[in-house]
Design goal:
It is globular, with a radius of gyration of 18 Å. It has helices at about 1-20, 30-45, 60-75, 110-115, 120-135, 140-150, 150-155, 165-180, 185-200, 210-215, 220, 225-230, 235-250, 265-285; strands spanning about 90, 100-105, 105-110. The protein contains 14 helices and three strands.
């Protein structure tokens, strides 16, 4: 049973980190199913500290992100499932991973590598808004419905068809490449993040800041493995920058970039409450 749960976890993870579109938009799962699936996978993640080490450093970092950024975004009137989903944010302690992901039902994970790399609250708000959008738009379970069908998945969850687990396990090796062909859900998540942030104190173009930063410096050169992995499962960053700039133009908003320090960016607060604390943590821990 343990191996079965691990296989389900990795299947869900490969689907959800990529979070690509499902074409028809049909979803045979209910929102309560989303919550149950997210809770199950979140539980498995917590039992696997070797691969998903939960951050145990300065608790003020998570408190600050939760109180000032995460909960503030969730106050947007455009987030319609906040009373259904169990929106929670967790930090994974891996300074080499520049990523974040969402599970069904509102479980959001951010890696410390990404937190260290970002340089403003607006940039993190853009990422968090993007992941909340994946949950709100139910991209994970839509993709699962399209790929396998609810009957097939339900038989696995209930343990009625355990022989089919090998089929899912096999698909793990090709799933990322296959799912990366579709870009619609990533674009939709960017759009919804933009709209969520318009209801907040944050500059709505923050969703593009990570890609601008990555494009401008030597991140790809210094971290080829992690960045190639990231790019293999995400749409072209240049396209995402251009799409966000177009949204800003249409909204009559100024086009700022990741180096900007204007209204709604909050560079200094982010540095003192997140980046500096993480720098101290990693210096003292020797990681």
């Amino acid at each position: 049973m343990k191996n079965y749960k691990q296989i389900i976890l990795y299947f869900l993870f490969s689907v959800l980190v990529v979070s690509n579109g499902c074409g028809t938009g049909i979803n045979l799962f209910s929102q309560s199913d989303d919550v149950k699936l997210g809770r199950e996978v979140s539980g498995e993640i917590s039992k696997n500290p070797k691969e998903y080490p939960i951050f145990k450093g300065d608790p003020l970092i998570k408190k600050y992100i939760n109180d000032r950024i995460f909960n503030h975004i969730l106050s947007s009137n455009q987030i319609t499932s906040r009373n259904i989903y169990k929106y929670e944010l967790e930090i994974i302690d891996d300074p080499k991973v520049f990523n974040a992901f969402a599970l069904p039902g509102g479980y959001i994970y951010v890696y410390t590598g990404l937190l260290k790399y970002l340089n403003s609250e607006a940039a993190l708000a853009g990422v968090i808004g993007h992941e909340i959008a994946h949950a709100e738009r139910r991209h994970g379970t839509k993709r699962m419905t399209t790929s396998y069908g609810v009957g097939f998945l339900l038989s696995l969850v209930l343990g009625n068809n355990p022989s089919q687990v090998s089929q899912i396990a096999g698909n793990l090796f090709v799933g990322l490449a296959f799912l990366a062909n579709s870009r619609s859900d990533e674009n939709e998540a960017d759009e919804f993040s933009f709209n969520f942030l318009r209801d907040t104190r944050y500059y709505p173009g923050g969703v593009k800041f990570f890609f601008e930063h990555m494009k401008a410096d030597s991140l790809v050169k210094n971290n080829p493995g992690e960045i190639e992995k990231f790019l293999s499962t995400h749409p072209d960053p240049i396209d995402r920058i251009a799409s966000t700039d177009e949204r800003l133009k249409l909204a009559g908003l100024p086009i700022m970039n990741y180096k900007s320090n204007g209204t709604g960016i909050y560079n200094d607060l982010y540095y003192s409450n997140v980046k500096k604390k993480l720098e101290i943590y990693y210096k003292n821990s020797g990681k």
